[in-house]
Design brief:
single chain; 313 residues; disordered N terminus
């Protein structure tokens, strides 16, 4: 099976548009949109509970995408919908709930972000331990170097908060939830995969119900009538969900899970750039140094996998 074939379109005579775009440009866009989620979370915390914003961002995306995906979803078997819904619950509800609830219980934001940055290592360990995949030592070295760079960037924001001890496991479990969903999606047969937009709609739909349950237990699900709340929902729905998650799955169709996840090591410094541009937060040479170190790690992963692909071909 050709890994570059469009999953949503079985015909090779009509290539998908994203295959005409260089992968590095898609990955750059992924970094911008994925890191926007952390900025959106910080912006929204002044206007509403984190899970309420996440719930309404799922609602907005579900409503926007429905006219474009209704026909495709109606033609899909219930078994395929169920499998993709499971992936969506792990990738979106599991990941976001773990991170946001950990922070809500007192886990420092910097520490929660560092747990989220463990995604490439989590993917590699799961692939090796559960799927039996063997990664070259240069890939492992690149992952460790990339993590060191991410830790260097977030070092100034790291602190041990006063959250209950068990709460520190929530961001880690959220990261593992996304890692499992990524490997599940990557190894799902093409015949059981949805197109990009139907898949994103289904993920937001099932995750919306999960967030409604979590937030509904704590309070009302009614939207807060304020410009700040509306802007928070629109920001995270457009950039973080449609942009971030959409590009994540798109890149995953073009490259290995290890490469796509390793690129996210650059998410912390890009997030700092967002914060500098939007909140006038200061930048430092430590951030620049961390970005360089992460870049070296990512380069090592990408170069090693490219060599292995060339040898196979």
């Amino acid at each position: 099976m050709n890994p570059y074939r469009s999953i949503s379109c079985p015909s090779l005579s009509k290539p998908a548009w994203h295959r005409a775009v260089p992968l590095v440009l898609l990955e750059a866009a992924l970094l911008l949109t994925w890191s926007s989620g952390f900025v959106g979370a910080r912006f929204s915390i002044d206007y509403a509970p984190a899970l309420l914003v996440v719930f309404w961002r799922c609602v907005v995306v579900t409503l926007i995408l429905l006219p474009f995906v209704a026909r495709a979803l109606a033609r899909t078997s219930p078994a395929v919908l169920l499998k993709n819904a499971g992936i969506g619950l792990l990738a979106m509800a599991g990941y976001l709930a773990g991170i946001t609830q950990g922070i809500a219980l007192g886990v420092p934001t910097g520490l929660a972000a560092l747990f989220a940055d463990l995604l490439p290592m989590g993917l590699a360990l799961l692939a090796a331990g559960v799927l039996g995949q063997r990664l070259a030592w240069r890939v492992w070295a690149g992952l460790v170097i990339g993590l060191a760079g991410a830790a260097l960037v977030t070092h100034g924001a790291l602190a041990w908060g006063d959250a209950p001890l068990w709460a520190y496991a929530l961001p880690l479990l959220g990261m593992l939830s996304l890692a499992v969903a990524t490997l599940w999606q990557k190894h799902l047969p093409a015949s059981q995969s949805l197109g990009l937009l139907p898949n994103l709609w289904l993920q937001c739909c099932v995750s919306g119900f999960a967030f409604a349950l979590l937030e509904g237990v704590q309070g009302s699900l009614a939207p807060i009538p304020s410009a700040g709340f509306a802007l928070s929902v629109l920001w995270t729905a457009g950039l973080s969900t449609i942009g971030g998650y959409g590009l994540y799955w798109l890149c995953l169709r073009r490259a290995t899970a290890t490469r796509v996840a390793s690129v996210l090591y650059l998410s912390p410094p890009v997030t700092m750039l967002w914060a500098w541009a939007m909140f006038n937060e200061p930048l430092s040479w430590q951030i620049v140094a961390g970005m360089v170190v992460s870049g070296i790690g990512i380069w090592l992963v990408v170069r090693t996998e490219a060599r292995q692909t060339t040898r196979v071909v």
